[in-house]
Every structure is written in C-alpha cells, then in structure tokens.
User: Fold this.
Amino acid sequence: MKCAVNVTLRAERDLARLYREIGAANSETARELYRGLKKQILSLDKLPFHWPVTPENRNLRHLLYGHRRKTYRVIYRVVGTRVDVLHVRHGARKRFG
Assistant:
C-alpha cells in the first residue's frame, strides 16, 4: 500500500526548530542527521504500519531515528491511505500527551 505523507504545520515547526538546535546550517554531520530523519519520515509512505503504536495513544504510531542521545521520535497517525506526521521531538523529551 502506498500512502501520501502529510507533514503537519506543527511537525514542520518541530523540524525547523530541530534544524536550528543541532546547527545543521553550519555542520555537515548535523545536516546528514537532519536529511536522514526527513528521509525516514518520507519513507512512511511505503510501510506506515511497520512502526509500533505509542504507549500514550493506540491511534498513534511512532518511529525512532538516531542513536543514544541523538534519538528523535516521530509521532504520526495513519488515516486511510494518508500518513499525518504530527510531531518530531527529541527522544528524551516527556511523552506526547
């Protein structure tokens, strides 16, 4: 099943903040991390049900990207053939709720 990936305004703001916080404009390593995260988000079009349901809400799913202290959590929902990306946050932040 091929889905359309819709990155919500909130998630776009989260990504813009992340870009600034990691200094992606000035660091190739940070830019690579950011590009990899965006690529992973866009890959939700192929296997949206691959990632687990969130513990906070069974209607939401989340993918984790990165390693250890540089792990980011993408919270999304699948609605028919559309994937709505709701939030992008650092993995250490309080749970979504």
The chain has two helices and four strands. The beta strands are 4-7, 61-67, 70-79, 82-90.
